[in-house]
Each structure stands twice: as structure tokens, then as C-alpha cells.
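Re-run with default settings, no changes from the original entry. Doing this only to confirm the output is reproducible before filing.
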Amino acid sequence: MNTSASFQGGSSPFDFFNFDLRVPVSEKVPNTEYRPLDFPQPTQDADLLRQLSFIPGLKEILMIRQVHALEHATVWVLSDSQSGQPAKGKATNVQPDNELLGGLSTEHGFYLYGEVNISDLRRAVALARHRLTNGEWDLAVHPRCGTNLSVAMLLTAGLAVGVHLLLPFRPIEQLIGLGLAATTAAELAPDLGFMAQRYLTTAIPFNLAIENITRTRDVWGREAHFVKVGWQE
């Protein structure tokens, strides 16, 4: 999550894709034995790894998805604390988001960029993991994630190629088609990006153990805190 796009509230024609980041999933769903099939199960990744352990790199993929979710949730928790607004209780129009904070996930942990006290970061990481694994799964999705940018680029390119092939090869028709493709992509990309995060690029960190947090530099020499994690069954 290292883009600078900001989240805008409001409705869209595609609201059936939207995820309300203001209300924890645990508050949206009654506390009954029934849960929809797409709700995360605590052992799903561990079971998958045991069944398909022969696939090279599977554990790293599963870990980076969980780390990615923990990174997003940590940014949300830090934004809550630094905004002075409570994380729960009072309803707000938009979930607080400190755009000075960013992150980069790896299979060993994640880098957090931005000025933050390491003690506050330790508390935020622990709280983020606790909230994620106790039902607040919407914290795994973040509007400034690079997944959203990737989805927007792929969607724009795909639609542009499609209209180029379908419309007559005349300048006016091609320009109109490209304009429609760009407009459609801009409308669809945020919602599809959220779906891609939820189902593809993040997973609830049921199997992550927080090992340590250090001040360091990334491979490009940028200062950051690194949150190191390990896998646990």
C-alpha cells in the first residue's frame, strides 16, 4: 500500500460492491452460529498449506496476503489514534485515514513509512491483529492500496483495447471509444479494487505471530519501521 489516492465517500451506481469501512463486520452480522461461506475461517490457510504443501512458494503467498491485511489494519488503527477520534462508537462520514502513513508488505513482514512513535506502533500492530482476527475484517481493505491502482490500469488497458478492436478505425469513433473506456474504468476500478483486495491480495492474519519491530531502511534506502512476523499454526 504505497499509493497516494484518497478515499471519497458517497454512492455510486455499483454500490453492491462497496464495503463499509466505518462499521466492523462483527457489528454487521448477528452473533449466531450461521456465517456466510465467504467469511474467513481461522484454519483455512493452515489447512490449505497442509493439503498443498508440495506447491513451491505457497506458504510465502499465504503469508504475504496475511501480512498485507495486517499492514492495512495497522494504518487504520494509527490513523484512528492520531485523528483523535474513537475507532468505535460514534459514526463518522469517512473512516479517518492518515495519508502520511504508507506501507509495503513482504513475506517476512511489512515496512511502515511515516513518522510514528515505535511504542504507538507496537500497540497499533497488536490491536490491528486482534481486531482483524476477532471479526473486523473490513480493516484488511484500504483505499490507498496499490492493488486499486493495478486494477485501474489493467481495466483501463483492457477496455481501451476492446473499443479499439470493436469500433471502426476512424479517428472520431476511436476517440469517443477511448473516452468511454476511460470513464467506465474510472467508475468501476475503485469497487473492483476493493473486491480484489478482499478476495485476492489480503487474508485475515490468523497465522501470523508478531516477532519484533525495528527502525531500519528498505532496499531503496528509505527510512521505515519494519514489523517482522512469523508463521504459526
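The two ends are 26 Å apart (CA to CA). The first helix runs from residue 25 to 28.
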